[in-house]
């Protein structure tokens, strides 16, 4: 409990520092940065996993609440860019596995599951079953999420002049109690049902589906209040930062440097795909960047909400990417090895 309390305080300090320095996304990037610095200084860190997962349900409801019949119809026209998701995933594997295996001398299972841009928990489970180094996987994937989430706001601001200070919702005082209760029901019921049936990304996708149904039926008419989305950002940021707990200088020299180098490859590859998509008029550049960036689903959802991107477009591509990685990883791993 002491470590949890100190981690919470460190994360709040990060939020304050980002606000004081007028840096973007203080509720998300502040906790990540503060926890990373604390971990490098040897400060013990700890999170509360059930609480972190429950906070992701807020993002699911926020995305689901934006669904309208017109939005659903627009998803039919996404097939050209959706087809590029498996292509990009294969490209990531072809570049990433040799990078980790030959350049950094990791064993094959660790190299493969370090390269795959899936959900962290899923890659750790698959990697452990395949005999990979779970600690290395955790650090590399945490670094992937960290670098992508830090780099994207910079790109969004420099290229599209995106306003990252936009509040991602209205205050709770402006939303009726009935609407707030509907949101809570969508979050809790959607999460539990999705988890029971074994849905990947249950804490986000379950609430998203139920909230979308409620929104399409006209029952849910608001997104979650700004305070709830700030809280979700805070705990998601803290959960990313906590993964660096207990890191050693040897791990910094190898795992973090290897992970950061791979992030450079991922960002360049993402920009190539975004340029192709934009050049052929398949989607706006901003939406393409948010949809194809191989960061965490929760973190990219936060960015898309704040900049006012097409949520259906962004989420559809991330869900497909995770689906391709989770269901294709064991098959591709065997083919890759042979």
What can you tell me about this protein's structure?
The protein has 338 residues and is mainly alpha-helical. Helix content is 75%, strand content 0%. The chain has 16 helices and no strands. It has helices at residues 2-20, 26-40, 49-64, 69-75, 79-82, 84-103, 108-115, 120-129, 134-160, 177-196, 202-216, 226-242, 249-279, 285-292, 297-307, 311-337. Helix 8 packs antiparallel against helix 9. The longest helix is centred in the last third of the chain and has 31 residues, at 249-279. The radius of gyration is 19 Å and the shape is globular. It starts with a helix and ends with a helix.
Layout of strands and helices, then pairs:
Blueprint: H1 2-20, H2 26-40, H3 49-64, H4 69-75, H5 79-82, H6 84-103, H7 108-115, H8 120-129, H9 134-160, H10 177-196, H11 202-216, H12 226-242, H13 249-279, H14 285-292, H15 297-307, H16 311-337
């Amino acid at each position: 409990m002491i470590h949890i309390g100190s981690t919470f305080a460190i994360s709040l300090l990060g939020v304050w520092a980002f606000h004081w320095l007028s840096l973007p996304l203080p509720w998300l990037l502040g906790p990540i940065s503060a926890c990373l610095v604390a971990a490098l200084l040897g400060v013990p860190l700890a999170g509360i996993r059930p609480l972190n997962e429950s906070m992701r349900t807020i993002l699911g409801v926020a995305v689901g609440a934006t669904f309208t019949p017109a939005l659903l119809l627009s998803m039919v026209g996404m097939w050209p860019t959706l087809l590029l998701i498996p292509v990009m995933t294969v490209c990531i594997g072809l570049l990433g596995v040799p990078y980790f295996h030959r350049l950094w001398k990791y064993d094959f299972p660790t190299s493969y599951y370090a390269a795959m841009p899936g959900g962290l928990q899923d890659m750790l489970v698959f990697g452990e079953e395949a005999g990979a180094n779970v600690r290395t996987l955790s650090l590399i994937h945490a670094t992937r999420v960290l670098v992508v989430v830090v780099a994207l706001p910079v790109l969004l601001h420099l290229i599209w002049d995106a306003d990252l200070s936009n509040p991602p919702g209205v205050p709770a005082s402006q939303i009726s109690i009935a609407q707030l209760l509907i949101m809570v029901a969508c979050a809790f019921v959607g999460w539990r049902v999705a988890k029971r049936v074994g849905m990947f990304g249950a804490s986000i996708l379950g609430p998203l589906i139920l909230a979308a149904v409620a929104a399409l039926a006209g029952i849910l008419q608001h997104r979650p209040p700004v305070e709830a989305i700030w809280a979700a950002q805070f705990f998601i940021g803290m959960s990313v930062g906590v993964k660096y707990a207990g890191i050693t200088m040897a791990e910094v020299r190898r795992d973090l440097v290897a992970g950061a180098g791979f992030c450079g490859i991922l960002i360049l590859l993402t920009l190539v795909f975004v340029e192709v998509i934009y050049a052929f008029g398949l989607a706006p550049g901003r939406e393409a960047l948010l949809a194809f960036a191989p960061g965490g689903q929760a973190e990219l959802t936060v960015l898309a909400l704040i900049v006012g991107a097409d949520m259906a477009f962004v989420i559809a591509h991330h869900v497909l990417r995770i689906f391709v990685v989770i269901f294709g990883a064991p098959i591709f791993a065997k083919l890759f090895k042979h």
